[in-house]
Amino acid sequence: MHVHPSAVISPEATLGSGVSVGPYTIIGPDVAVGCGTIIGSHVVIDGITQVGESCQISSHVVLGAPPQILEARSERTRLVIGDESVIREFASVHRGSWKGNGTTVLGRRNFIMAYAHVAHDCTLGDEVVVASQAGLAGHVEIGERAVIGGQAGIHQFVRIGKYAMVAACSAVSQDVPPFIKAQGDRARCYGLNSVGLRRHGFSEEAVARLKKAYRLLFLSKLNTSQALEKVVAEVESCPEVEDLIGFIKTSSRGIAR
Known about the structure:
The protein is of the alpha/beta class.
């Protein structure tokens, strides 16, 4: 373990073997950092925060700060960051709130780029990318391997499905289903995330069925309930189509159509 002499680390904090801490970094008493994690200079890690193994935390990052809400009674709320995650310069991730589920969770191998913000009670799956200056309001849920473009803004309580892609500068106020691209203010869906699906090895058969389901859901003149009935009746089932149907059926904010 290597800790720069100018760093201020509470004696009650837990640092695993091989952890490196840069100059002027501050680590609070309820923080646990996993083995092999590298923390840059001028980082602040506070609150009940668990950082996984082999993470890279760049300079001026703030982790575990209190949520930005009125009447914030969140002394015992938490932030959990999965193994091998990368959080770049000036990004911030806040811990959960007492009004929410009490925990902000980032999965494994997340990539949070410079100046991005992840607010209280958000839940991110594995291998999510949040590009520079994007902002996630409270209680946002993002599925595995989704991509949030630079300067995009995600409204509180919105869900972004797995393998979805939100374009840069979009303002997202409704749910974006899995496997789909969304763009605009307010964001609308614009086809499958075909490049992402190909890169992640989805079969041609699965992509073809998703395309057929997309056409019924977003390009027909049917309302959502009618379109879902058509998809069930006319699109041959597969796990990807079932995920798409299930996501839309459980949407409380409505779909970004």
